[in-house]
Every structure is written in structure tokens, then in C-alpha cells.
Amino acid sequence: MTNPDTTQEILTTADGVPLKVSLKRALRRKKRNSLLLVAPLFLFILLTFLLPITDMLLRSVDNKIVPDLLPRTAPLLAGWDETGQELPGEDIYHAMVEDINEGAATKTILRLGRRLNFERAGMSSVFRKTARKVKGLQQPDSYQAEMLKIDQHWGDINIWRLIKRESGAFTKSHFLSAIDRQTNDDGTIGPKPEYKQIYIKLFGRTLALSLLITVLTILLGYPISYLLATLPTKTSNLLIILVLLPFWTSLLVRTSAWIALLQKEGVINDLLVAVGLIANDHRLAMIHNQIGTVVAMTHILLPFMVLPLFSVMKTIPPSYMRAARSLGATRFTAFVRIYVPNSIPGIGAGAILVFIMAIGYYITPELVGGTSGTFISNMIAYHIQGSLNWGLGAALGTLLLLLVLALYILYDKIVGIDNLKLG
């Protein structure tokens, strides 16, 4: 058909719709169908990954407890000059009495005391004691004097500085604690006392042991993968079942088995004593320490190194080695110069998989690590489940996430993620 206004011919479909319009409709349908196909996966990732991480990031700086439970005191403290040596005025003491009375009536005062107790030991006791005794105050001549009678801590200017500092909607104290720092009474940031500096050491231990476990899985997994890749297919398929066999057993059972093997009265020590390598009164301590953590986690994570290596080695043509041998290379030289470089993508894929899994492992270090073999993930779990300091737990989790992302970027710069292969 021809447009009467122009001499240009317009192509149409069989039903008379212009071809350009029909193509646009088809593309829109294709995009819509694609989006509908990915929608369940996106929703799953949103609910199980993105929302929990966002919640963790918010909890690490959230500080709504103090301003919400001190609605009268917090605004007044904002106008108080804490740089001097004068205690807050009578109006602030009066507001604190009313807020504590209200918190005692709604049974929320313990939450306030526990939150401030994370920053300064003894604050929970101060608020509990004051909440019990402040009920009888009936418009005294001086609220300040009455509160000092109840507890002398209300005359400590540093406590009021702490309350003012933590009266905002957001706080940096959780992140400071996560790197063994604190806000001093004068407002400066400095290191915590040495006996409280544990988190930097835990991060360092987590990185060091995770790296050691990754190296051990490479050393143990490489010959196993090479054997599986060079054997006939029927035999290698049979042996690969043995590699996958640990996945059919509960992680808790496998970890508990290592406790039975490594403890002082365990199988390995009994065997060493029986063959005379060690004396009965000098049994080796191989459990509830770093040795137990490394041994158990290397065993558990070894299949995650073997499978990527095996899948990559399977793609290396045997003709490469034969060609190198025909050109005069020894078996060792051909292996080092030809086979190993071609298997590096598998090493990279297995290493990053094992390392990232190891750095966030929880149950195995908890069971066999004792005090010297636990990871930062164990401390995160303690604050979430034990101490209920969710803010500090979230801050530690956020730092761990940022650390993994930084190491991932560094790995990409040095090795290159594009060079990784899973087969």
C-alpha cells in the first residue's frame, strides 16, 4: 500500500499493521516475558539477600533507642555545652526524672540502660536503681539534689556527655568499637584499653587462617583433581562420588567426628602413643585451638577446591603434554610449563570460592576452635544472639562484607575475574 501524502511505500504485516509497529510490539512482549521469567529470582534475591544486608547496614548506625526513650531530655541536652565543667541545669534533671518515670512505667528503661551500658559499664545499674527510687519524687526543691541522693553517678559530667553524644538518631560508636576504638570523655577518639582490643586481632586471625586453609586445599586438591582428570572416564566418575560423599553427611556430624579424632584421648593421639612417637603424658593438643579449626575446615572445604579444578583440568587436551614431550621436554618440565598454566583458571576459581566461604564460616570454628581458633563470624553471632548488641554485631558484619569486597576487587586487579573458569 502507498501513503497518499508521500511516495514512500510502507511495509505492513498480513493484518495490515505497519511492520515497524509490529516489530516494536514483538520486542516489548519479549522484554516483558524475560522480566516475568527473572522476576521470581529477583524477588528471592531481594528478600533473602538485599533486604537483610540493607537492614544490617542500617542497624550498624541506628541509635533510635536513646532519643526515643528520652524524648524530653535529649532535645534539652542538645543545647547544653558539654565542653565546660558545669553539670546540666535543673530543667534537664527534671526532664530526666520524667523520662525515667515514663520508661519505668512502660518497662523500657532497661533497654535504655543496656544500650548505654555498651558504651560505659555500669549505666544499666544506674538507670535500674534510679527507676526504682525516683517514683516517690513529688516536685522537690531541686531535682538535681534528689537524683544525686539516689545515685552519685548523676553528678559525673562524663555520664551526661555520654548521654548527649548518644542522643542522636545515628551513632558511630558501633563502628568505633568494631575497630577497637572509642570516644573518650573529652570527645576525642582513641584506642580502647588493651584488654578490650579483640576485634582487630579477630579480623587478622580470620584472614590468616582462611588464607592458610585455601593454600592447604590447593596443595591437597590439585593432585586429587589431576588424578581424576587423567584417569579413564568410567574410573574418574566412580572416584568423583567419593569426593561428593561428604556432602551426603551432616556438617555437624563431620565436625563432631574431628573432635573424636583430634582430642587428647582421641584416635590419632592413641595411635601415636601406640607406635611410640609420643609419650602418654605428652599427648598433642589438636582440638579447641587453631589446629582443630584448620584441619576440620580444610577437610570440609576440600571438595569446593577439587570440583572446579577437576572441571578445568578435564578441558585441557592431552595432546598438549604429548607435544611438549615430543619437543624434548621432560615429564616434569611439560607439567610445570604446560599443564599448570592451563589449570590456573581452576585454581583461581577454587581459591576464591574456598577463601570466601572460609572467611565467613561459623559452626566449625565454634565447635573445634576454642578461644584461639574462632573467627570474627563467631563474635558476630555472639553479639546477635548472646549480648544482644545488634548494632556492634551489624557493624562487624558490615566491616567483614567490605573486607571481602575489597579483597575481591584486589583479586580482580591482580588475577582478573575474567580468567576464572569452572569448566
Structural commentary:
This protein has 423 residues and is mainly α. The protein folds into two domains: 65-171, no CATH class; 199-419, MetI-like fold (Orthogonal Bundle). The chain is built from 19 helices and two strands. A two-stranded antiparallel sheet has the order 1-2. Helix 1 crosses helix 19. The two termini are 55 Å apart.
End-to-end Cα distance, whole Å, is: 55 Å
Task: Characterize the overall form.
Answer: flat
Spell out the CATH superfamily of the largest domain: MetI-like
SS elements, strand count: 2
Q: Tell me, what is the CATH class of the largest domain?
A: Mainly Alpha
Helix content: 55-70%
What is the annotated CATH architecture of the largest domain? Orthogonal Bundle
What's the CATH topology name of the largest domain? MetI-like fold
Strand percent estimate = under 5%
Strand order of the largest sheet: 1-2
Low-confidence stretches: none
Total of DSSP H or I helical runs spanning 4+ residues: 19
Domain count, please report it.
2
SSE pattern, N- to C-terminal: HHHHHHHHHEEHHHHHHHHHH
Mean pLDDT: 88
Specify the biggest β-sheet: 2 strands, antiparallel
Radius of gyration, in Å, reads: 32 Å
Q: Assign the structural class, choosing from mainly alpha, mainly beta, alpha/beta, alpha+beta, or little secondary structure.
A: mainly alpha
Blueprint (SSEs and pairs):
Layout: H1 19-59, H2 65-69, H3 73-78, H4 90-105, H5 109-117, H6 123-133, H7 143-150, H8 157-165, H9 173-178, E1 181-183, E2 189-191, H10 199-230, H11 233-244, H12 251-262, H13 267-274, H14 290-313, H15 319-326, H16 331-359, H17 363-368, H18 376-385, H19 390-414
Helix pairs in contact: 1-19, 4-6, 5-6, 10-11, 10-14, 10-16, 12-14, 14-16, 15-16, 18-19
